[in-house]
Each structure stands twice: as C-alpha cells, then as structure tokens.
Design a protein that fits this description.
Blueprint: H1 6-9, H2 20-29, E1 31-35, E2 40-42, E3 50-62, E4 71-76, E5 80-81, H3 83-88, E6 95-108, H4 109-118, H5 120-146, H6 149-161, E7 168-171, H7 176-183, H8 187-197, E8 202-205, E9 208-211, H9 214-222
Antiparallel strand pairs: 1-6, 2-6, 3-4, 3-5, 3-6, 7-9, 8-9
Helix pairs in contact: 4-5, 6-8, 6-9
Length: about 230
C-alpha cells in the first residue's frame, strides 16, 4: 500500500527515483507543512532538526535573519534545503526565508540518518545530491576567484535572458541589493558595474533593464575586459 505522502515525495528530485519501499519509509517519517512568504523556516546557528523538501514555493538562504541579511542562494520546488547540515548533525550556517507561499515535507534529521544507514538506495541518492552541492560550491568559488564584478554581473544578466538573442528586456524579480548579495558584491559596487556596462548596451530604468545585444554581453561575461577592478 502506498503512503498518502508518497505523491509529495516523488516531486522531490533526490527521492523521485527511489524504490516504493524506500518512499513509503520516508513518507512515514515525514510531515507536510505550509509556509507563508517572509517566514523564516530556520535560522543560522540553530540545530538541524529537519531536512526541508520543497513541494511548492521557494526559499532563499540568507546570511542571517537580521534586517540587513544578504541572500546567498535560492531553492525552488523539487529541491532539498541544507541536506549536509542535517546529515552531519551540525548547526545551520545560514537562515532560510520563504520568498513565496509554499509547502514542504519535513523529515526529522535523526530518522533520515537512521534510514540512510539501512537503505542503500536512499544512501546512494543522498551521496549524489551531496556531490551536486559540492560541484555547485566549487563553481561558485571559481566564479568569485576568476571573474571581476562587471563580468559576474554580465554572466548573471546573460543567465536571466535565457535563450534570448539580440535585444532583450529584463525585469528584476528581486531587489538590486539582493542581486548584489547573490553576486558577492556590495550594492554600491553593483551600481558601478551597471554604469560600466552602459557603453556596452546595457540600460537600466528603475526595475527594468534593457540589453541591446545579448551576444556582446556574452563576450564580456566570458573574456577579459578593461573595466577597472570593482571587486
């Protein structure tokens, strides 16, 4: 018999390919919780009592829970949040703030660790997830070490444009302060970087940004550019 929470579990990337027996055991240990935008699901320094699996909505990892907190990374539906802390039993290094209404499955960390000890399929999936997290971290470190602020901004804008080519108009989904935090730069550095991109066809109008030629921005993002050093 399939547990009623299994349909929620198979929406989570790390769990969707698990055998039915593994899914039933996880479902039995988990609980479903709704959350509202602006709610902190957990705070830095807190004990990792649960693994948060996002069924709906999105969560931003913040540097802390203060009014001046800087966003570090965003997680959306289908992802698990801070699995490493839960598996190691170590305090959260970041705070998790809901940026949209949603639902999450809460799996008690101690129960997940116990299941991993006896379930090879679950252990393998968690190992793959941790490997992906590691590669993401290395990629972000490489980005910070090998690209200046202008190039990081250019790469971010190109990623936001998706498959578009030629002229593109973007609307910031979050504040410029939050974008600066995600890029690892100060808000005033972001402003200077935007000004340095203006001669290259980037214009800002409030929360809207126009790129005259995505291809030109791609060259700036990937190659050397004499833009000073606004780190």
């Amino acid at each position: 018999m399939t547990h009623p929470r299994v349909p929620h579990l198979i929406k989570i990337a790390i769990f969707k390919d698990l055998p039915r027996e593994s899914l039933n055991r996880l479902a039995e240990a988990s609980g479903l919780q709704s959350f509202a935008a602006g709610t902190y699901l957990f705070e830095d320094g807190g004990e990792p009592d649960f693994v948060y699996c996002l069924v709906e909505g999105s969560v931003a990892l913040m540097s802390d829970s203060s009014p001046n907190a800087v966003p570090i990374e965003n997680f959306s539906a289908g992802e698990t949040v801070l699995l490493p802390a839960a598996l190691l039993g170590l305090p959260y290094l970041l705070s998790g703030k809901a940026i949209a209404n949603g639902k999450c499955l809460l799996i008690p960390s101690n129960k997940l660790r116990a299941l991993i000890d006896t379930d090879g399929a679950l252990a393998a999936q968690c190992a793959r997830a941790l490997s992906r997290h590691w590669r993401l971290l290395v990629g972000q470190l490489k980005e910070l070490k090998t690209h200046n602020a202008v190039q990081r901004l250019a790469r971010y804008l190109v990623s936001q444009a998706g498959e578009q080519k030629g002229k593109s108009t973007l609307t910031f989904a979050t504040s410029k302060r939050d974008i600066a935090g995600m890029l690892g730069i100060a808000p005033e550095t972001l402003s200077r970087a935007l000004k340095k991109l203006k001669p290259h066809g980037v214009e800002t109008h409030g929360e809207t940004l126009t790129i005259k030629a995505i291809e030109k921005l791609e060259l700036i993002a990937s190659g050397p550019l004499d833009t000073g050093k606004p780190h």
